[in-house]
Design a protein that fits this description.
Layout (H helix, E strand, L loop, with lengths): L4 E4 L7 H7 L6 H22 L5 E6 L11 E5 L2 H11 L3 E2 L2 E2 L2 E4 L10 H5 L18 H14 L1 H24 L8 H78 L1
Antiparallel strand pairs: 1-3, 1-6, 2-3, 4-5
Helix pairs in contact: 1-2, 5-6
Bound molecules: zinc ion.
Length: 264
């Protein structure tokens, strides 16, 4: 099943200091800083790579050390199409000589699957907890990566705005007839939806008719214009002939007057 979230299995190779720290051992500040640098470099690389395939909404790396969770990376895209693009592009690829192992993940919001107790600093299960212990990522790093993503791919935001507007429009259209579906039972809901669909079909037909009528009006206007042109042309021709005839008459008259005058 395609989803908007992909899980990359064991993609992040924790440096020994990070493992020791997650296990609760003492680690020097120097080693911790190195481990953090190592992690941020990884995070940046993966973020930039994944954001080439679509708008990346969340990127999380787990801190758990359990066999099935260690090094797992979760990436949630804005939509399933983007996720499948990334999925297909990375299938069979290597990351630092490790084959990328990936699968679609039913998690809608990665942060919803996290261990709340870990967030509060009270998880007793430690690094071997079965809920996600997510590595903390510097907020300003995430912000700068997102800014970079939108700068390189301005279409992501535009798509989102378009989708949002479409959704808003849809909701508005529905709300004009029924304010909310939530308060109806299933049967009524189905009936309402059926009616919306019927209304939609009727509206579509009306739209088509309107279009046809508009086209007919245009056709009629063209014919009328042609007729007017023809009439004007005919009139012009008639006037021209009339003027010619008049001119000839005048010439004839003047000939006569001249000849008559000469005779006098
Ligand atoms: Zn936990």
């Amino acid at each position: 099943m395609i989803s908007q979230t992909i899980m990359f299995k064991h993609l992040y190779q924790n440096p020994p200091a990070a493992i020791a720290f997650a296990e609760g051992s003492k680690v020097s500040d120097e080693d911790l800083k190195e481990a953090l640098k190592h992690f941020e470099k990884f995070y940046e690389e993966i973020f930039i790579e994944l954001s080439n395939y679509g708008e990346l909404k969340e990127l999380c790396v787990v801190d758990n050390l359990g066999d099935h969770l260690i090094g797992n990376v979760y990436a949630r895209f804005n939509d399933e199409v983007s996720a499948s693009k990334a999925f297909n592009a990375l299938a069979g690829k290597y990351y630092h000589s490790n084959l990328v192992e990936e699968e679609y993940c039913p998690i809608v919001k990665i942060k919803d699957a996290r261990c709340r107790k870990f967030e509060e600093g009270t998880c007793q299960r430690g690094a071997f907890c079965n809920f996600l212990h997510l590595k903390e990522v510097n907020r300003s790093l995430i912000k700068s990566l997102k800014d970079e993503m939108y700068e390189n791919h301005p279409e992501y935001k535009k798509n989102r705005i378009n989708n949002f507007n479409k959704m808003k429009q849809r909701n508005h259209e529905h709300s004009s007839s029924d304010s909310s579906l939530d308060r109806y039972d299933n049967y009524t809901r189905k009936k309402i939806i059926k009616r919306w669909n019927e209304d939609f079909q009727v509206e579509k037909k009306i739209e088509e008719k309107k279009k046809k009528m508009a086209q007919a009006k245009i056709d009629l206007a063209i014919i009328e214009q042609k007729l007017r042109n023809k009439k004007k042309y005919d009139e012009d021709e008639k006037n021209k002939n009339y003027r010619n005839i008049k001119r000839e008459e005048i010439y004839e008259d003047s000939d006569e007057t001249i000849s008559k005058g000469d005779l006098k």
